[in-house]
Design goal:
By secondary structure, the chain is mostly beta strands. 0% of the residues lie in helices and 22% in strands. Strands 1-2 form a two-stranded antiparallel ribbon. A hairpin with a 6-residue loop joins strand 1 (25-30) and strand 2 (37-41).
Amino acid sequence: MRADCDPSNPDSCDLRQLTDDPADDLLPAWSPDGQTIAFVSLRDGNAEI
């Protein structure tokens, strides 16, 4: 289940770090059922999901 997050009030957000890699992880998107997050990663130098 996802909670609403108000960008003007960071305290309203339940923020968690999901990745731990020095490469860029970009464009996160929730799956339609709200259970999974997909993102683009540049970990090996190529953009991969």
